[in-house]
Fold each of these.
Amino acid sequence: MIDTLHTTRRTFLQGSLSGLLLSVGFNGTVRAEDARKYGADSMPGGTVDNPHVFISIEPDGRTTLIAHRVEMGTGVRTSLPMVIADELEADWARVTVVQADANEARYGNQNVDGSRSVRHFLLPMRRAGAAARQMLETAAAARWGVPASEVQARQHTLLHTPTGRRLGFGEVAADAARLPLPAPDQLKLKDPAQFRYIGQGKVRAVDSEAIARGQAQYGMDMRLPGMVYAVVARPPVLGGKLRSVDSAEALKVPGVLRVIELPGFTGAPMFKPLGGVAVVATNTWAAMQGRKALKVSWDDGPHGTYNSASYRAELEAAARRPAKVLRDQGEVMQTLAQAKPADKIAAEYYLPHLAHATMEPPVATALVKDGRCEIWTSVQNPQAALDGVAAQLGLKPEAVQVHPLLIGGGFGRKSKPDYVTEAAMVAKQMEGTPVKLVWTREDDLQHDYLHTVSVERLEAVVNAQGRPTTWLHRTAAPSILSLFVEGGKGQMDLEAGMTAINVPYDIPNLRLEGAEVEAHARIGWFRSVSNIPHAFAVQCFVAELAHKAGRDHKQYLLDLIGPPRKLDPRTLSDNWNYSESPERYPIDTGRMRDVIEAAAKGARWGRKLPKGHGLGLAVAYSFMSYTATVVEVTVDAKGELKVVAVDMAIDCGPQINPERIRAQMEGGAVMGLSLALSGEISFDQGRVVQSNFFDFTVLRHAESPRTIRTHLVNNNHEVPPGGVGEPPVPPVAPALFNAIFAATGKRIRQLPLRDQLQA
């Protein structure tokens, strides 16, 4: 049985001293072979002096593996320990997985964001398991007085191959613990053909049984003796301040204990609480009723006039005039000016703000006592939570302890732990009493770190064959930069590098420009970030070009991508400044072509369809993976849409946990459809209009496609791993809208769809 526990550094060390305590230090030393394959920057977190402890083996053979990344449905709390177990040759049935607390010095980066858990930690986890295996083999060889080359680890047993003698892992664990780590050039990783668990789909998620039984502990499940509950009335407009509060009626509500004013942020929003008024009570209902009874007056500040309709007009104007050049090749402006009107095509695409709308809203429990703060919460970035609490309370980081719990949906929202700091601020005023601070659904939607609103304008000049010879893309969207730099404008290179700078099309004249527009809301990263608006515009525009040329969309797209080749993204633009190594992750057009072919084959692209049926295609390269989607729809005479099927193909390099890859693809399809059909956050007088799932609707079961097929392409361990959590989303909306055009002949360029088919 696999148990999932929580531990502290102290208790883990105490429990493991009797067995093998393996400390694996990420000291930046990389074998030449690994450097060539993965890139010298593949060690996450850079140089880390303190050892990272991942493996403990008791004398009876019980094995504990540390999961230093937090689980939010991607399966990482299973996949990374599974990788260690495979290289270790551990029997998975004898493994216990322990969730690590926040400890950057010990574990390196623990932020579950950017689809990078497996990308960054596959090799280090393999090396950890392989090092332990070799140490156990060496210890057994010494016990027998034989060469280590004659000993092999097999499923928790050490075998002397010439004689058949055997020892259990636990029998030599103490001896192995005293041995030095294998030198980097002596470490022997398994050949992929030897994997027992990696890529085999045989390991059940460590949390699955607890989740099925309702025993899993999410942030909302946390209970402590004497715990009280808090909710916060926050400024309804970004940057707003509290003018006055009358709490007399709130304090009359049965169960309400205190009303506490919280200071607002200064400077850039970052991960700082918005401020406001906290109501503390003996239960959440009393706290919420107390909040309703508050008489609060707000100063809305500079964003009090923010309105989505007028802001869209600003973005459209910005996208129609020259802006900062981010990629420039050939003579784009000259060829556009000289082209005949019949040879030119232009289109604008609009995407609104989007909310994460996780099933579990933000929640955190905090206890401040004796100069220390202890936190229990569902958080993607435990270290940011620790740092934020320490800074706000004026504590040293070592005086703060963060225990990550299961995350009931994150999508990037819970890597921004403002709610954790809020809980600590209230707990400081209730010293010695644990405080659970809960966000309601209304709080979550109206105070989110939203996905950016965007207008994307594309123009092209086509030749006699309908092929573009000139491509101009202007993007206008408030930037995540505004989160960190007060008044920050213009998409960062990181954002522009997502399906905009790096389009791999064989076009001689190509230019990308980014407008500098102001943010009026907290802009944060969202599942797949700027790949969503860029891929929507780019992939819909390619479909429009194919239609203008009178050609099959799939073949047109393949021709535009060109023959298989590898592109260094730095050769595309001087502005390329993405977070991943271009040597390690060149753009491989052959892999992109493969996923297009796989998705199209799965959907039986090219078959004759009845009237009102349509197939739509889109592809995207994001988070170092290649994903293509084909959506099949029907639209009846009344304009009623039904999504019949979705075919998704992904090439993420090595496939570590196929079952979780399929789950992420299916979830990405549903989320992508939900956003495309109805997802929208809008503003009026600086306030979010939507408040709950009745007006920010998500896809219901009856609306979901009955068929979602996932096609896993190129299980290749010779390339570094790509992400899986985020890449499914970007191609979904453009594939859907291209399918709608195929079914109806109606071109829609605005998200969400809502009732545009009936208009």
Amino acid sequence: MRTIKKQISVLLAVLMVLSSIMTVSFSVSAAETTGGTVTVKSNLCDSAVYNYTASDKQIQVTYYLQCDNKILNMQGGIYYDSSVLKVADTNTEETCIPAFVSGNAFINFDLTNKALFNATDLKLYDFTSQGVFVTVTFDIIGSGDTEVNLDMDVITATTANSYLELKGASDIDLVYYGNIAADKFAFSSSANVIPDETKDVSVFGDIDLALADNGSGVYTGVTDLEAGTYTFKINNMGTTYCNGATFTDKTAGAIYNSKWTSATTLKASGGTYTFKYDTTTNKLIIEYKAPSLAQIFGDINLELQATKDANIYSGEIELEAGKYSFRVMNRGVQYCGGYTFNDITLGAKYNSKWTSASTLNAKGGTYTISYDIDANMLSITYVPTGAECGIVGDITLSLDATTNEKVYSATTEVEAGTYQLKVSNFGKNCGSGATIKNSTNGVVLNPKWSKYLTFVATGGTYTFTYNIATNTLAIIPEKAETVVKVTGGIDLTLTKSADENVYTGTTTLNAGTFTFKMNVDGTDYCCGATIKNATTGLSYKSKYTSSSTLIATGGTYTFTYNVATNVLSVAYAK
């Protein structure tokens, strides 16, 4: 009978505590929330942090118990900050402590910053399988970082499995005022943030589309529409925003206002529409993709989308290294070409009369497949796996990030020849109809241009540098070390100084007259002047042919030549 007496005494104590608590009504007016975190903690389990936003309405906090022995009684409380959280009106004993309502259970929500509860039943509570111990739903009424803390005073288990076995059974104190036998039970917690459906962002009217936040205040949604006329408005966190304009398939950034009442009209050609709404500036962008007229099917299945070029349909796909067999569907008709491609092709002819599939031997990466539906020409370019920016086409090269986050660069050997290439700017292939002969300090490419840049290389080492913000490509050949000599009656090779344009060298000459020319990388530079022992600066040109004359008195002579300005100075020392 020791156990029964103990449970009765606990129950009486609990009843006395609850009856002595003065009921205090606590209400908080709803405030504008900006978000924060809720740390869910307890004296019985590890803490976890949950984020909430201005669009979240409630958070439901749940604690779970699993114990090999059945439970006799429990007593504790949940503590919280009532400036941020408020116990929701939907909470009851049945919803908050569902496993305990079969016995004597009490819970008091009419307290400030806490809810106290207890339960006892000689018929025992069964948590031998994990069950909900206590769960409370809170309204989010404030902002900032806060916490919900479950602090249990008492949880008593028993070695009995039923009421009939209580006589002679032993109590097991799982929790008893600071003493916790954590090795005898498993306790855990979770939380579920519940969004406020009135604080969403959506398109409504003839178009019903929920928009999702991308993290920067721009809400986005995608929908397929058939050809037709649609009217709609914007729901921005429960407030209606309007613009009475008429759009044809897309808009680049129309301003909406909560004071306007006229709906927007979209005259749709039919296809895929992406709605992007900026809740900060109240601007709407609609992007449009026409229905696909061309597809790749087989081992590769890819819908090709229309581009700025009316005939070109294109799509992008990630492929692992391997061999892929495919054909083309052009406006419902199968087109084939029995070719084998190693990563790329810049224009393979296909025919509806052919039946053999094409094979792509892929090294792995991001592949862009384009098809000219009138010419029946297929192009494939790719960026290797791991490359964010790269050269594609006849030259495939991953560009590496630099200290400038907008600039990517890499160096490679290129044989003499003519190459067709584009730049993949994070998956968007940028083209240009320009022709570059060996080098360029900057040519602009564009993802809307379908033509390939023509690069005519004399051969050697080239550095490709691309600015992803301005879409500007630079191609710089590696220049060999400049060789500067004094030739003729004086034979002297000059050495580059700290100034990379200035070369210098020293020689000893006897008294006499010497004729000479300057030679830079095999090209003679001349000046027919006569130098009497020294000069501070003479201009030389490759067009001149007359040698210079140095009348030397004998001694040490230092020749200094600037290859940028083609100016020579001669210094003399005895």
Amino acid sequence: MAAAAETKSQESSLQSEESRQESGESRMRSPGPMASWESDLASIQHSLKFVMKLREEFICPICKGVVLNPQQNSCGHIYCFHCLQRLLEISSPSSPVCPVDRAVITPAEVFQDNCCKREISTLEVYCTNSPACTSVVTLNQLQEHLGLCQYEQLQCTNTGCKEVLQRRHLEKHLTSSCPRRRELCPHCRQSLHLHLLQDHLQSSCPEVEEECPDGCFHKVLRHQLMEHRESCPKVHTDCSYKKFGCSVQGEREKVKLHEESAVSRHMLLVLSSNIHLEKQVEVLQEEALMRQEEAQTDCLTLTGLQKEIQSLLQESSNYKHTISTAQRTLSRQEDVLSSVKLGVQQVSRGLGSGRDELEQLKKSLDAVMQDVLAAEALREHIVSLEENLKHHSGLLDLHAAQLSLNKQHLQELEVTSFDGRLIWKIQDFRKKRETEAKGQPPCLSSVPFHTGRCGYKMAIKAYLNGDGEGRGTHLSLYVVLMPGDFDALLPWPFRQTVSLSVLDQSGARNHQSLSFRPEPTNKCFQQPVAEAVSNVAVGFPCFIPLNTLETPRNAVFVKDDTLFVKAKVETAGLDQL
């Protein structure tokens, strides 16, 4: 009986101990974090070298390193907080034991030994970079020392560089020897990786000076090469009187001398060209007069057709009134006929003396039938009149469409350019831009212009609120090839250089210009299909930022709410038909 009671008492004490362990383990697993210097030393605690030999009680019996954040058990031994936590996690709740004396660890009796922690924190230790670094510091200051130690191994902070070197050499490496360091371009001051700087200087830096590629020996900033080419004395160009018939070509300076020495010849060419133009103007004026006469004739015809249609409509209205009257009469006659039939039936049943009345009723019936036939004929005539009205309405629409085409053709003849240049005046700029931003219309198109009397036909397209990647931020300008009357005689694909400009209205001539040379393989420069309106437009979706356009520094692009856009097609080497 005593043994049984003792056993029952032991079981009760074990259950109580298990409950205390569970509650204590719960507290062990949710303590406050280590001090920052202890958590930073966790990765190097086994490689630390102490000035004095480390006392046995300061060595964790689990990890064999210096104790960090010491926790003391009821048996008197101390452990690292994380070491003890792992030991409790891998052991069953009833069997965690001290690895030194195998005493049972009761989590509820474990506590943080702050006295031991203070002693450990003041232990002197050599720098982990010894013997290169001879510094001796206390353990709680080691991490702070390593943050300043000149012998600490660090990785280069430049992106892409994997070099590891001591802190004392890092600054020099970052500023002078790292192949991945960033340096400023000495010309445009743009920050670039060192391995990209040479390519930038050789090919893309806009502020690098280059010798003129046309051989005038001038050095020009790269971004001003295109502008320099407009005045370079070595550029091959045509005489400015080429459009009047002068065929001289060569370097600009020689062509300039030619222009100064051949003034009289050029004046004769201009005079001959003016005579030819006057004849063409006379022909155009005659053609315009003919068009006006045709338009007047069409207007007279249209007026006559309108009057004829009005009379037909009036006649149709009269016929409809007549038919309505006939229908009402027919309805009354049908009522009379019904009454007559009833009367005939009564007469047939009655006396034979009513034969005369019956004859009169028959005559009335015949008259009603004739009225019905007349009404049917009248209805057929009205249907014929309605078909005639539809025919005349169709003729009227055809005449109106032809008149509109004649007016449009006359307007194009008055403003058409034949020298490959066009200056397009866009008025009400802001209103049109706001309208375009709302989606109506999507873009503006200029009148067509030509590279010669029998040359290519082209037009400018402008998106005042931007197109594609420039929508809402840039002005977009394009040029489009259109089907022309002489396309079958012209060389294809189109190969002439095209320049687009936004003109400065301040008088300083600081125009904004961009050019492109067609790619022969691009479908946009092939011969336009006759059935199509035009080819796909080609140009610059980001021609000029809208804020630069409206508030430029040294130019005035929008004045009196008006913008001027210029297109110029290089006609050098283009034979005139």
